[in-house]
Amino acid sequence: MDNRNDAYGGFMISKNVLNGVPIRYSFREPSTIPQLNGWNIFSELDDDEYVNNPDNFVIVNAETIYSLAPQMLEIFEAPYGTDLFWVYEENVHIGFYDLVADKTTSIEQILA
Question: How many whole angstroms from its chain centre is CA 11?
Answer without folding.
Answer: 7
